[in-house]
# Entry
Amino acid sequence: MWIFRVQSNIRNTFRFLTIIWIFSKHFTKNWFYNSWFRRIFDPKGKNLTTRPQRIRMIIEDLGPTYIKFGQILADRPDLASERLREELKKLQASARPFDDNIAHNIIEQELGDPIKNVFSQLDNKHMASASIGQVYKGVLLTGEEVVVKVQRPNIREKIKLDLVLMKILAKRAIKSYPGLAHFNVVGFVEDFGDNIMKELDYTIEASNMKRFAVMFKDDETCYIPRVISQYTSPKLLIMEYVRGIRPDEPEALRQAGFSTQKVAENGTNIILKMILKHGFFHADPHPGNIFIRDDNQIVLLDHGMAATLKPRQIQALINFMMGFAKKDNRKITKAVLALCDVTYFKHFEDLEFEIGETIKRYSYLSYEQVDMSHLMTETIKTIIKYDLNVPSNLFMLIKTIATIQKFGESLEAEISLADMIKPFAIDKIKEQFTWQSIFNKLSGAAEDYIYFVDKFPRDVKEVMSSLKRGVIKHEINLREDSYTNKAMRQGINRLGFVFILGLMLICSTLLMMYKEDKPAIRIFFYTTVIVSGLTALRLFAKTKFS
# Structure
């Protein structure tokens, strides 16, 4: 209806004017304290601020959208200077609470039922307040204690408007400063918009929780609260209430009988399992999102921010760690390029040299003492010089690794990230040489080959037809006859057979290296070697040399 459109336009206009006012206020304040007026009103320079400080203060005044943007920017060395990143790390996601009565009204709207028909008890006062929502404790009619997470009123509309304005500002900035195009600022804003819109949908968070619960269903060191699905909606999330102690309170943990060393080991192992085994990880595992309960069990909360890794990226991450342990610059360089989804890079040798120089700065430390997140950040800074696009999930990964390292430090525990990574690396290597893995690779190669053989004659006919029509310019004569097609098909069949045979030879050799004691594998290896040798002799005998 037109009345709702009018209300929306009024809200948008008001928000736009608010943003203009905030920028004007800070620019005026900055001019005032940097002019001759300072000599009168602030002779000692108490109100002088640096540019990074002014940017942080502007972001704080702009509200939740910009605060979250600043927090993400703090982890992006490709977009922000070190000084600005350090200042942006001071940003807090806390926000003023909104009226509890309004929250209760939203809960009823989302439930489609009065509160008394669902809850036997629901607190009138919120437990916590964040930038996107507010949290309450309640008891269902079944007697189950729950946590109720309700979204702020009109927060979606505010964030949508902020994202539009941010995109406009990014495009204007690129026009004014063309050098910024190299940093893909618009792409960064778009990625940020996609992520924050996902956070605004509590059904996505509920889905993440269920996915993590399946991942750790047989792991007693980790617990994911149960989602009450029938009452969950995009604006409302109801989950099991879990008691525990925060990990940033080591003394309280010790007094309660917990082992801080074991807690740190369990927490680190859980995150590594997410990253290296499943490729799906909690992207914000700070102490506020973690509880510790009986048997040093880790309870993970707030699953709105999660990220995925491709299998290729997981393997690349392992190769990065192994390459650093062996001081193998080439292996590290290949791993970094794989993490960035780059298959070919013409400046490989130059990049390898610069990465090697970066690695040498850590030569005075043992592998166990290296801050892996800092090492990866420095490596990323190096590859940014070569105009390579770094995927956003990689920055989330670095942040998560940094968080788990700080997690161990806050608990005053000794954690060797390198030693804890080794079992996952070994498992990944073993996975590549299982019978199932080999069969899948062989069947995939066979399918690709069959598709190629089936399609190739038709492609040849199309090319020859184009040549005859003059669509493709040429200086050679091709004949379309049965003999030509037959020769081509035979040649391709022979090539495919050799390819599959070679693949089998490689697989059998690797299996012999890892499982030499298995008689079946030895028979498979020697049979493959004999067949390969005979095939090579036959092809050699039929080859005409001129």
